[in-house]
Amino acid sequence: MMIRKSGVDQKATVARLVAAVERRELTVFVHVDHAEHAHRAGLELPPTDVLVFGNPRAGTPLMATDPRVAIDLPLRMLVWEDASGLVFVGHHDPRELAVTYELVEQQAILERMADLLDAISTEAAGS
Questions:
Q1: Distance of alpha carbon 96 from alpha carbon 50, whole angstroms
Q2: Any idea where the DUF302 domain is (predicted)?
Q3: For the chain, percent of residues with pLDDT exceeding 90
């Protein structure tokens, strides 16, 4: 997992993440607030959010090449707060999908996705 320490609190990091994704005209498909769902179930969890987002123009060629990759798309980014109050932004390296699935000929798309996630996580973390 690629991880960056955020320079701001959880809520601000998530807000920056959403703004960074939307500024790039990507679609936010889902925002999961795990801590809120845990709270509703009577459980405690430090702030933990997952944003699921993407662009069909990038993901569709990958799925057309190997439909199994659809289980790992759209892209996801995690923002969490640890026990000491530090906030982190993390995501998987999409280039690893070429190994898991038959996507070697789609390496250029995976490289662009990796660059995109790096830029978005940098912006969200404020680093």
A1: 20
A2: 32-94
A3: 98
pLDDT digits (tens, 9 = 90+) for 5-49: 999 999 999 999 999 999 999 999 999 999 999 999 999 999 999
Domain 2-125 - what CATH class?
A: alpha beta
Other Cβ atoms less than 10 A from the Cβ of 110: the count is 20
Q: What angle do CA 12, 87, 124 make, to 5 degrees?
A: 45
Q: Mapping DSSP to helix (H, G, I), strand (E, B) and coil, where does residue 47 land?
A: coil
Per-residue confidence (pLDDT) for residue 37, from 0 to 100:
98
Q: How far apart are CA 55 and CA 15, in angstroms?
A: 20
123 CB-contact burial (10 Å; exposed 0-12 / middle 13-18 / buried 19+): middle
Distance of CA 114 to the CA centre of its chain: 11
